[in-house]
Amino acid sequence: MLDTSRQANELADIQNRLIFVKIGFLMLLVLLGLRLWQLQVRDGLHYQELARDNRTRSIILEPARGLLYDRNGELLANNIPSFQLYVSLEDIQDRNALLAQLPHYVDIDQQEISNKLSIKSRRGRVKIKADITLKEAALIESHRLELPGVVIQPEYQRHYPLNNYASHVLGYVGEISESQLKDPEFSDFQGGRIIGQNGVERTYDEYLLGEPGQEVIEVDALGYPKRSLSVQSPLAGDDLYLTLDIRLQRLAEDLLGQEAGAIVALDPWNGDVLALASKPGFNPNDVSGGISAKDWQRFLKDTRHPLTNRAIQGQYPPGSVFKIIMAAALLETQTLSAQEMIPCHGTFPFGRRIFRDWKAGGHGQVDLTKAIAESCDVYFYKAGNLLGIDPIATYARQFGLGEKTGIALPSERSGLVPSSEWKKRVKREPWYPGETISISIGQGFLTVTPIQMAKVASIVATNGRVVQPRLLKASRLRRTGALKEKPEPPIRQLPMSPQTFAHIKEGLAAVVTKGTAKLAQSEFVSIAGKTGTAQVVALKPDGDKDKNKEPQKEFRDHAWFVAFAPVEHPKIAVAVLVEHMGHGGSASAPLAKTLIEAYMGFETTQQPSL
Amino acid sequence: MSLMNDNVNRRGPDTFDWCFLGVIMAIISMGILSIYSVTNPQSTTGFPIYLKQATWMVVGSLAFLVAVGIDYHKLARLSYLLYGIGLILLIIVLIAGKTSRGSQRWIPLGPFAVQPSEFIKIPLLLLLAAYYGATTREGWLRRLIIPGLIVLPGFLLILKQPDLGSSLGFLAIFLVVILAVGMKSKAFGFVVLAALMLFPFAWGGVWGSLHEYQQDRILSFVDPNSDPGGKGYHGLQSRIAIGSGQLLGKGLYGGTQTQFKFLPEGHTDFVFAVFAEEWGFIGSMILLSLYILLFLMGLEIAFKAKDIVGTLLAVGVVTMIAFGVVVNIAMTSGLAPVVGIPLPLMSYGGSAMVVNLTALGLLLNVKRRRLSLL
User: What is the DSSP letter of A41?
Assistant: First the structure.
């Protein structure tokens, strides 16, 4: 029993030691309890946030852009469904694998993906490619498991059913750029947003954009959507009715054909822009569908500058068209009366120089009407010399030259109306009287844009009513469905006498009936107009001094024709400029005539061709 | 002797027994509830996992009754044989076992797969109790080296699978039993106790100071699958799950972390995270209290056992369960690295359920026979 008692002693020993085991376990479990308190109570909110971020993805729901129509309800821009390729940054598991794999399925450069993914944010979605093809979308969907984080989202893609037509007016849309994101104007926007980048898409972006919605979805660990937590539906943008008459717009562009140039047609009474054509154009569908960097560079480097809207950005000397303003200045300042006869022998000596008339031998005895009709240069050399530069500049400005018309399109240029003050300020030289002689026939420093000249025509047509050219006729609010007409813009009356305009109009009518633009004479409608030839002096290379040589096309003069019709009750004012086509009477006048006839409802079967 | 035991056996269960059973069933139910919650949406085909677990609970309960019924002294005498069979099974696993997620742990048995590394724990508990209970083991050799050499092959075979968690559990049982037996050296005992107590935390501390690649190296050496997602993904998602449960929890099915698979293995090793996410701090405390109650009852049994075999068997069982609970919760709450240790009675797994219930049956066996000599 010794063994038994020893065993009993040992049992007691062991059982006494159990207290250590007990305390040990209890302490461990208390520590675990404290740890759980720390995680769940003290830091619970923090982990709650982490859990929410873990499982939710917020997706911007792009609103449908407002549609664009012409004044008659013809569709100019709409939205078509398309597939957009996104990468959800939280769900990328292997960046390099993604970079390596994606180009197998989608036509995209590895470098381009890398650039798009190089933004600082670690959250949210980045658009990798817009408007992927159905085939690409199908390929990606079938390899979805290998591409965690890649999301294909059906979205609306801007579409321009008329392709190249009206491209400069409509503009295009595109993803908001890095530099725009830094601009305070776009401070409300997030990266990846599609915004208007040019044309009315840009100027009326605030109406067209609509309000994006947001959907918060719950996703699992692989980023697959499980369910929708909240949806804030996007609000589509307002539809806009432009003042354009797309029939006229198409005709204008077709008339220009392959030539570079611009045609602007206005309703002289309210400033409605009926047509605003600039050639060469571009297809906004190509640009809006997420143009690749390479294609964009190609566009920008095109020497014919297809993206330039010549109607508002092209600055050309007005040439003889400026004689309209000279005439107004002469009569208003009573420097010459309309009836006063000026002899023209084909030359105008001034100082050491001799200024020539375009017609060798001259026009004989010339009054204002004849001077305008035959575009007598000597008459206006003399007039300019009598007037002096600053009164000329004042009247030019009255007609809206030297300043932007304020048409709702981006990047309009103002042209230039020189004055003695301007010369001193900019060129740091006094004005030389000889320079006034050049200005008198619309050359020299003077430059204008086609839309400014259309405005001049409409001012004359309406006896001095100045209106701002406008592009927006009405808008349909998506919220209410109500069609809201834009109020007509305010009208300013020039402080000039009706007689002045009557004399000018008489001259302009004679231009077409018996003057320099007989090609513009219509059997259906009376047209008044003025031809012009803008010299392309500045473009000639220095080495080319040979005056007798027939100049290459790019050094030929630009052809102007500015008109309104009908003469008695004008309904349309037109400015036509065709680059490097020489004389306005032969190149531009027939285009204006066809356009006016079409607008007045007289379709001609045969269109003039350049 | 056997007559008296029979008398004891015929006595009906007392309040303690019912309490003991109630705590066990409560924990198992919480486990099944969590498994139900996390696997419910995906159980479109086949037998739902939570029902499988319930089935294992029934099987385990039968094993529990058997373990209560057969005198633990008889079982202790069979322990060497059982341990030997266990070692042979572990060798078979190594040679012909079913590989799942990179480690060989299972022996296919019809529609099931048996995990010998779980089952060998029962012979281990019995063997240690039998060894120290037979005679007084004097001296370092008999007290530490010989039993150590007996335990070592099991430990190494499990480690080789590799199953770091189970092998550490194996070691923990041995160490606590030695601690209980005493080394006649207070210093040694204290060191063992301190080491055991600080083990998960020291581990966490040392671990945290290592570079990631060092951790990766160590982990991939001992267990290539400890963290398949890499970069502490499981650990973080588990902490988020537990923490986001906050005070009151997100309710049944409400656990977004686990429901949406941010935290994988929600029904096995990370079942505690599922539970804590859905039932919050309150739920976690209730669960922790149930475990504490279970350990205190187990230690009470050990304290009142009539002989050394009984005491050491009880201590072993409590250690086995407690080790699983402490390391698993420490792991899911980010105090210890993620090593695959299931939460006893809660994690899904047939072998573990049967083994744990068998062990708890042995515990009750010890209690119900403590009065036999008095």
Answer: I
DSSP SS3 for B70: coil
Residue type, A208: L
Spatial contact of A59 and A214, defined as CB atoms under 8 Å apart: yes
Question: How close B312 comes to chain A (CA, Å)?
Answer: 8
Domain boundaries, chain B: 17-41+48-368
Q: Is A32 in contact with B241 (Cβ distance < 8 A)?
A: no
Q: Which residues of A290-304 are buried (b: 16+ CB within 10 A; e: fewer)?
A: bbeeeeeeeeeeeee
Q: Convert the pLDDT of each residue in A244-283 to its tens digit.
A: 999 999 999 999 999 999 999 999 999 999 999 999 999 9
Neighbours of B107 (CB within 10 A): 19
State the pTM of this model: 0.62
More confident residue, A607 or B53: B53
**How far, in Å, CA of A66 to CA of A158, rounded?**
10
Q: Which residue in B107, B108, B109, B104 sits closest to B94, CA to CA?
A: B104
In order of their start, the domains of chain A are: 56-220+234-242 (3.90.1310.10), 246-472+488-541+550-599 (3.40.710.10)
CA gap A148, B8 in Å, rounded: 64
pLDDT at position A67: 94
Residue with tokens 């020993």, as numbered in its chain:
A13
The whole-angstrom distance between A230's CA and the closest CA on chain B is 16
The verdict on a CB contact (< 8 Å) between A22 and B201 is: no
The ipTM assigned to this model is 0.86
Task: List pLDDT tens digits, range A109-145.
Answer: 888 788 777 765 556 678 788 778 888 888 888 887 7
Report CA dihedral (A187, A191, A197, A200) to the nearest 10 degrees: -60
Tell me which chain B residues have a C-beta less than 8 angstroms from the C-beta of A225.
none
Mutate one of A2, A16, A28, A46 to test the B interface: name it (highest B CB count within 10 A): A28
Catalytic one of A82, A288, A320, A438: A320
Structure tokens at B267: 């029904």
Amino acid, res. A261: G
- Beta bridge partner(s), residue A75: A69
Residues ≥6 apart with Cβ < 8 Å to B20: B294, B297, B360, B363, B364, B367
Whether A320 is catalytic is: yes
CB contact under 8 A, B180 and A21: yes
Please tell me the distance in Å from A281's CA to the nearest CA on chain B: 53
Q: What is the DSSP string of A507-571?
A: HHHHHHHTSTTGGG--SSS--EEEEEEE---TTS-TT---TTSPPPGGGSPEEEEEEEE-SSS--
Q: Which residue of A has its CA nearest to B249?
A: A40
Query: Pairing mode, if any, of strands A239-242 and A68-69?
Result: parallel
CA distance A136 to A147: 14
DSSP letters for A159-214: E-TTTTTTHHHH--EEEPPHHHHHSGGGTTPPTT-EEE-SHHHHHTHHHHH-B-EE
Of B257, B281, B333, the CB nearest to A51: B257
Alpha-carbon distance of A206 to A494, in angstroms, equals 34
